[in-house]
Amino acid sequence: MTRCHDIAELVTAYVDGDLDDARASAIRGHVRSCSGCAALVEAEVAVRDAAEALDPAIDPPASLWDRIEARIAKEEIHDSRRSALWLWWQRARPQVFLGAGAAAVAGLVLAVWIARSNEGDSHDPTARAPGELAAVGPHGADGADVPASTASTPSSTIDEQLVDDILRAEKRYRDTIAELERIAASERESWDADLTAAYDARIAELDAIVRRERAAAAGGLTPESRDTLFAAYRVQISFMNEVTVTGELLQ
Amino acid sequence: MRLVAIAAAVSLLAGIARADKPKSVVERDVVDVAPAKGVEIDAVHIDNRLGKVTVKGHDSAGVSIVAVKRAPDDETMDRLKISLVPDPAGPVHINTSLIVVDEGRPVKAGSIRIDLVVYIPRKARIDATTWNDDVTLADLDNGGGVTTNEGDIAVSNCAGEIETHAAQGAQRFSEVFGKLDAEGISGEMDIETVKGDRLGARMHDGTIAARKVRSREVELRTTSGDIDFDGEAVAGGTVYIASYSGDVRMTFRAGSSVRVEALSKRGTIAAVGIETTRKGRRVIGTYGGGRNSAGVKMMTNLGNIDLNVRVGLVDDTAEF
Fold first, then answer.
1. Do A103 and B8 touch (CB under 8 A)?
2. How far apart are CA B317 and CA B320, in angstroms?
3. Residues A20-51: pLDDT tens digits?
4. Is the dihedral angle over the CA atoms B163, B168, B169, B172 positive or is it negative?
5. Which among A148, A178, B1, B169 is placed 20 to 30 Å from B42, CA to CA?
6. Do B170 and A133 count as a contact with CB atoms less than 8 A apart?
């Protein structure tokens, strides 16, 4: 029965067509049912194709082969002198790595559990109790004071977090404007003509400002462009709130 | 073979269990800035997007900065910078940043921060900006501006013109004298003991509670969220309280002289201790009868209105 390690040993000869028909057939049969070895064969074919595609003008000096052969011979001699323990390790290594991988997963789970259980022991003088404040930023000390809703995933970087924060902040502004637009649409029937005209004109101005700031920030929000864009949103929200809530222009 | 694998797994687990939690590096820096001879520090601008900011007024002419920096390791700590730029004309600029290093490892979100406590001359105007952290102002005489995206704002014992913006977060004001304008998208506003020319508070989604207020011009607005106002209607002044869907409640002291107009399109209007007449959904009333009465306007589209008269002075803490 052909096994995976047989394929690994014979794959080069197989791809080069140096195997007899019986062994080649056995390998083909194994590859049909083993995706890992199929990938190995494909990789070997790719290497061979890439080697064949090399410029034939690139001809390594004859001395290079001599040095390679000498290096191989040296390593083989070195291997032949290794201890029995080393030979055993070569055979056992795949299984040990498999066991270690499983242990690592179990260890990770244990480490997370330990870390979580230790969080309650934090003595950070600046740390706030969870839920102490209505809204807390994502830059909590060691993440301890970050609400779940804004907590970053362990893999996220500060840059990714900042992008997420900006997108979330902008969404909040735009959602607020959309809500005020809905209210304005439902209330404008009760406005007089002057208020309606003034409202529409001002909204057109503010929309233009927001569009301009968004266009300016299209290449990537900097702190300055972000501040300007958000300030434009605030002005628009304040104006919409004024008219939709009071039904008049106060300013 | 299996024994070896199990032994390796057990030793690995034991190693992980013994490992300490990753320690962060904490550094505390104190910097004092003395003004140049003959120059007065009249303004301080603080831009800290990496943590919270606390500003306190003091009697000294200089600026003192206490910075607490946190980073996961020394290398990252070295990248956390606080720049201090004194302007010869008077203002001082304080900025924080994480220096970008091409070969630097990505910094894990939430692993760094810089918290600032800044002592400035009481007469200096302050402008403070944070990103997702709190801002606190105290003991300042010349007002200032505060902007934060997600963070709480607290202002106490301050005078002058004060303007605040928080997209999300609570805003608390106590003992503010002068002109206060606060606005937010989402959060709660708590205002206590505010006196001066103007009190403006606008919140899209959240409540506004104002107590012991004596400002000449009061304007409180929410889209959704109740508004409570307990204060004085200053002679010749105006009080405008409006919400789209929240309830509106006002209590003013008996010594005030007011003209009241209340409108609730779909809710109820209740007035206690004041003579009123109803015109459709609108209620109009007067109280006191002085010549220079304050104009009070209360309105809500979907909520209810309550108007009460309280016996007592605005400074009478026993009554308020």
1. yes
2. 5
3. 777 777 788 787 778 777 877 877 777 777 66
4. positive
5. B169
6. yes
